[in-house]
Amino acid sequence: MDRACALLAGAGLGAGLMYLLDPQMGRRRRALTRDKAVHLAHEAQDAASVVARDVSNWTQGLAAGDFSALAGVRSPAGRTLMAMAGGGLFLYSLTQDAPLSCVMGTVGLGLAAEAITNAGLDDLRRAPRQVADTARDVAGRAADRFGMGEAAHGRGQRQQTADPARAVA
Questions:
Q1: pLDDT in tens, 79-132
Q2: Cα–Cα distances in Å, from 128 out to 76, 123, 124, 132, 134?
Q3: What's the Cα-to-Cα distance from 79 to each of 11, 23, 57, 99, rounded to whole Å?
Q4: pTM attached to this predicted model
């Protein structure tokens, strides 16, 4: 098994070198690879500077007593710190014994998930109703488009008449 992996790795490395050192197109491919790597490095540097500036502003706000940054939609810096703290807590929990490791791991994954999705517990609580409302709106639009609008909207509801005793179900 190890020999087969080594053979495949060697074949892949050889194919990659052939691709980059090709006498006809190799120079162009190397230049494109270099340009993409430089572009990626610049994007990473820009993102890091944005997060660093945001962390600086965020901590200055917390130091000044503005705790509103801890609730609601989080800034990129807050989300980054939350994801790192959650991931670190999860990794640390792997070194602990149960049941402490289970609790710490769950909290860590919860922090990381909230940071990645930027959705808090209130958002998760409202999600089923939002999905149901969206599905109802889409079904209503589809029914209207196919000429079944009133039949679809009236289904399951009582028709209102002047005399409540004569209401049709």
A1: 888 888 889 999 998 988 888 888 888 888 888 888 888 776 667 778 788 888
A2: 26, 10, 8, 6, 10
A3: 42, 47, 14, 28
A4: 0.40
